[in-house]
Structures are given as structure tokens and as C-alpha cells.
Design goal:
Number of domains: 2
Bound molecules: pyridoxal-5'-phosphate
Shape: globular
CATH class of the largest domain: Alpha Beta
Radius of gyration: 21 Å
Helix content: 25-40%
Strand content: 5-15%
CATH topology of the largest domain: Aspartate Aminotransferase, domain 2
Structural class: alpha/beta
Number of helices: 9
Distance between the termini: 54 Å
Oligomer: single chain
């Protein structure tokens, strides 16, 4: 079957939906009209068919292999995005109790707000003036009665990332939103009660959210919980209570195969350290032309955030940076509208060579405009 790559692709530094490996896109292109000799696209395949069942089983097994998920954890592929889980987590786990939230950026802040609809949900420390780091755990006010301790592994907007699994009290399960760093570094599943991640950054395209949940936490939802977000129902139906996002699940499966082929999560981590290091080095040696507001110990490997022209940023220079980068084939470098500045997202599909191109551009841009600072 004939298919070809479009060699005019640009370098996409978007925060999500984000770049997919070209190999994945080419396989999807090849399969588009006729998946596996069936004469139909995966989009046209019944979710109850044996063929889709095979896709689903392989996707789950590859995910289990990649993360070394213990047998006492269930894996779900659900609709509703990460935001759906902001509600699903408290509706399934809170049940009239309390929960603690570590708020390190806008995504955990949103999860906290949603959780507060369902019970007594509190922050473990007072909201900081800005999200530029993670207070050490000895300053956290932890409740031993909490049903869970919630954290966001990587804050996509602010560029703040946990470098290790946070501390929790005995018998208080950790709940982790790993939407924007899943598969970019190993994660110790056994230290968690629940981990979830939307696919559209490091695992595929929008539409599906992977949930890993410890068996003993399944079955405690409140009666008002919508059935499609009810873990017990979805576990019982193998994520097929209703029509699942079949195509997004298929694409996620291709991404899992690709990560495995590259050498797994460990290799993704090595590349992520290298890629983010290239940019942080330039930032830290730029005489404040580039300024990253995030504490060095919690800087994200996935979303490198910085201002240009001093710590408060020079918006004119930042606009020039985005425009000139675009002319050189590098897109989506504008920071989130709530924080401004620049954000370079370096998910697994972004290559070291592509990151080097951005690094070179940053060096040239600084030389050209340093005097305008
Ligand atoms: C860390 C994190 N959590 C949750 C979300 C929300 O995901 P969704 O848009 O799939 O609801 C995002 C979206 O960017 C995110 O970055």
C-alpha cells in the first residue's frame, strides 16, 4: 500500500495536543482505510468486535509492561480527559471523607476546586504567591484521616515537576495526575493508589485517559457518580461500558509500541534529561536574557518555561522570539496565556536534534537582541 511522509512538517513544541512520533502517524496513515486486512478503518470497527478486543488487550499489556504495573492494579481507558478525573477521583474515593491536595500549579488548583464540590478537600500548604517550586514535605499539613493525597506530577502551564514520588502518611494513598509526564520517566506504581494521564501529550491523541487504580480503591463511589466515570462499573466492563474512544485507544497503542521499540521509559527519561538540559543550560548562562522562574530543583523536563529580557519578561522581545522561531519552522512556543513568556514542550516525540535546533536559535536570538533588553 502506498503511503508517504510529508517532509514539510514543522517542529512542534505544543503543550498538548502535541507532537506524535512520525512512525506512529505513518502507521495510522497506512491503516487508515484498511486496518489489518479487515477492509475497514479502526474508526469503523465495532468496539465489541474480536478485532478491537485484540487491540484493547495489547494496549493494556504494553502499558503494563512499560510501567511495570503490579497485578493488584486495574487499568482503565476512559473518556472525559484529565478534567473528567478531577471529578472522578473524589466521586470514587472521597465518599463523605476528607482529602489533601498538594497544589503546585494551575492543574492541581483546578482539581482541588472540583474536589471541593464533593467533600472536605484542603490544600496541604497556603497558596504561594506564584507557582515556582514545591515546598518541602516537612512543611505540609497532612491529615492522617485523609482518603487520599493528591498531586500533579508535572504542571504543564507553570513547568513545575516532582523529581520523586512525594511523601505520604501511612494508609493515605497517593493520587497522581501524570497527564504531561507519563512515560517520560519511570513511576513507582506500587507507591500510589491511583495514577491517571490524558493521552494527548505523551501517549497519543486527545479522547482517552488512562487510569491505573489499586483494586482495593475500586467500589466506593457515591451514588451520584456518572456511570461512565464509575471505576467499579468500568473495571467490570473492561472500559467498555459504553462506546470507548476507539481510535484514540488505537493511536495510544501505536505510541506504546513505539516507546517499547525505543527502549522503554528509561530511554525516554535519558532523552528528556538531555533535551531539557540543553535549554536550561542556555537559560542559566544567558546573563538573565532568558529567565526561568522555576526553582532549579523542580524544573520540568517536559515543559520548559521562561521569560525573555529579564525576570518579568519583555513582551515585545517574546513576540519577536515566537515570530522568528515560526519563520524557522518551530511553532507553538508561546507560553500559556495565564503566565505569558515562552514554553517549549519537549515530550517523548520531540527529538534531540529538534531540541538542538531550538537551542541554536535561542543562542542566536540572544546575540541579536541582548542590547534591547
Ligand atoms: C497536568 C494536566 N492535568 C489535566 C489536564 C486537563 O486535561 P484535559 O484537557 O484532557 O481535560 C491537563 C491539560 O493540559 C494537564 O496538563
Amino acid at each position: 500500500m502506498a503511503y508517504c511522509a510529508d517532509h514539510n512538517r514543522v517542529i512542534n513544541f505544543a503543550a498538548g495536543p502535541a507532537k506524535l512520533p512520525e512512525e506512529v502517524l505513518l502507521t495510522a496513515q497506512r491503516d487508515m482505510l484498511n486496518y489489518s486486512g479487515l477492509g475497514v478503518s479502526v474508526m469503523e470497527l465495532s468496539h465489541r468486535s474480536a478485532e478491537f478486543g485484540k487491540i484493547m488487550n495489547k494496549v493494556e499489556q504494553d502499558f503494563r509492561d512499560l510501567l511495570d504495573i503490579p497485578d493488584n492494579y486495574k487499568v482503565l481507558f476512559l473518556p472525559g480527559g484529565g478534567t473528567g478525573q478531577f471529578s472522578a477521583v473524589p466521586m470514587n474515593l472521597l465518599n463523605g471523607g476528607t482529602a489533601d491536595y498538594v497544589v503546585t500549579g494551575s492543574w492541581s488548583a483546578k482539581a482541588l476546586k472540583e474536589g471541593q464540590k464533593y467533600g472536605k478537600v484542603t490544600e496541604v500548604y497556603k497558596k504561594p504567591a506564584s507557582y515556582t517550586g514545591i515546598p518541602t514535605h516537612d512543611t505540609w499539613n497532612l491529615n492522617p484521616e485523609a482518603k487520599y493525597l493528591y498531586y500533579c506530577n508535572n504542571e504543564t502551564v507553570h513547568g513545575v515537576e516532582f523529581q520523586q514520588t512525594p511523601y505520604t502518611l501511612p494508609n493515605v494513598p497517593l493520587v497522581c495526575d501524570s497527564s504531561s509526564n507519563m512515560l517520560s520517566r519511570p513511576i513507582d506504581v506500587a507507591k500510589h493508589g491511583l495514577i491517571y494521564a490524558g493521552a494527548q501529550k505523551n501517549m497519543g491523541c486527545a479522547g482517552v485517559t488512562a487510569v491505573i487504580v489499586r483494586e482495593d480503591l475500586v467500589g466506593t463511589s457515591i451514588p451520584e457518580c456518572p456511570i461512565i466515570l464509575d471505576y467499579k462499573t468500568q473495571v467490570g466492563m473492561n472500559s467498555l461500558y459504553n462506546t470507548p474512544p476507539v481510535y484514540s485507544i488505537y493511536i495510544m497503542g501505536l505510541v506504546f509500541e513505539w516507546v517499547k521499540k525505543q527502549g522503554g521509559v528509561q530511554v525516554m527519561e535519558e532523552r528528556s534529561i538531555k533535551k531539557s538540559g540543553l535549554l536550561y543550560d542556555i537559560i542559566d548562562n544567558s546573563d538573565n536574557f532568558y529567565c526561568c522562574p522555576v526553582d532549579a530543583s523542580t524544573r520540568s523536563r517536559m515543559n520548559v518555561t521562561y521569560r525573555i529580557g529579564g525576570p518579568n519578561g519583555n513582551e515585545e522581545l517574546e513576540k519577536k522570539f515566537v515570530d522568528e522561531a515560526k519563520k524557522q519552522g518551530m511553532i507553538s512556543l508561546k507560553g500559556h496565556r495565564s503566565v505569558g513568556g515562552i514554553r517549549a514542550s519537549l515530550y517523548n516525540a520531540t527529538t534531540i536534534e529538534e531540541t538542538m535546533k531550538l537551542a541554536e536559535f535561542m543562542t542566536e536570538f540572544k546575540e541579536k537582541y541582548f542590547s534591547l533588553m
